[in-house]
Amino acid sequence: MVGANLLLSPSQPYLEEARDAIIDAIDAAQSNKPISQYLPENIHWYFDKFGRSLRDGEAIEFATSKQDSPARLTKETRRKLVLAATSATLFTENVVLFGTVPEADQDRGTFQIQLADSRKIIAPIGEHREEIVKAFNEYPHGTRVRVQGIAKVDRAERLHSIDSVENVTVLEELDTAARLDELKVLKNGWFEGTGKAPPTTGLDWLAAAFESYFDLDQHLPYIFPTIDGGVRAEWSISGHEISLDINLSDHSAIWHSWAVGSDTEDVRKLSLDDANEWAWLGKQIRTAAGALAI
Amino acid sequence: MPKDNFLLSVYDGDLISARDSWTHYTTRLEYLSVGVMAVTVGECLNESLPTRSDLTDFPEHAVVDFSAFQDKVEKKSKALRVVAEKRGSVFRDGVA
Fold this sequence. Notes:
Shape of chain A: globular
Order of helices and strands of chain A: HHEEHEEEHEEHHEEEEEH
Distance between the termini of chain A: 84 Å
Oligomer: heterodimer
Number of strands of chain B: 5
Largest sheet of chain A: 5 strands, antiparallel
C-alpha cells in the first residue's frame, strides 16, 4: 500500500502565530488598546495598502479564537494601525476630489486641482491627458473635474498630495456631487452672520442619494445652501418653478411646484430615505419637462 | 422668510443705484455678494405684495411685505424671482 504522508511544514506554527498577531492587532485597534504589543512597528505600514478601499460603514471581519465577536478592520481601525507606528506621519487613502484645473505641466506630467476651499494639489496627469487639457482650457468658465485616486493624508486627515490618479471625469455645470462638495467650505455665519453651515455628513448623504436614486441624465437642479443649514434644489423647467427644501439632519424635504402664471401650486412633504419618494420626484421632473403626459 | 418676520429687505432704487447698493452691502455691512437683481414696486403689487421704506437700518432700506401671504410665500417669492431673472442682473461684481 502506498500512502501519502501529510507533513506539517516546520513554519506552520509561525504562520498561525503571525495570523493571530495580526488579528489581535486589528482587535486592539478596534478596542482602543495598545497595538504595539501585538505587532512590531515596521509591520504596521502593511496596513497602508491592505484595506485601503474600505469605505465608511464597510468592514473586513476576522474570526478570533479569543472571543465570540470577530475583529473588524474598518476605515478607522486601518488608520489607527498605520499611524500606531511612531515614525508614520502620512498614510494613503482612496479619495474622490472635485475642483478646477488652473495649471497643467505637460513637461513634468503633472496638473493642479484647485479645491472648493482654494487649496491647490498637484497630481500626475498619467493616462488622463485629454480630460485634463479640456478642463484646463475651460478653467475660465469654471469647468470642474472629478478626480478619483490615491492620496497621501496626514495625521490630521489633511490632504497632502496625490500619488496616483485612477479616473478623471470632466463634469457638467450642475453636477450635484461637485456642487454639494463646494458647500462644505461654508462656516457658521456664512449669510449675513447668521447662516448655519450645512453638516458634512448630510452633504455626503445627499450626494450619495442623488447618485443612487436620481436619474442624473435628466434635468439637474441648481443647488443652494439655506440659512438653517439645509439645502435647496431648484428646477426651472418648461414654465414650472420647482423647489425641494431638504433637511440634512432628518432627510425630510418639502417639495413645491408652481406653474408660472397660474394660481395652482403643489406642495408635498417627502422622506428622502425612501427610494419610492425619489422615484416620485424623478417622475415629477420628467412630467414637467414634457417627457411624460401630464 | 420667517427669519425676517415675512419682510424681504431690499434697497430703494429711487434713492441708491444698483452699484452703490452693492458697495454698501459689501463694504459698509461687510457681507458677501456677487451682484444685484431688481424688481419694481409695480411687479410687487402685481403679486399684491406691498412695499415700504424702513429707515431703521439705513436711509435706502426698504421691505417687501409678505406677511399677508404667510402660506403663499413660496409661490409669491418664485413669482418675483421669475421677473427679476427675466430682467437679468442689474449689477455684477467685476463687470463694467
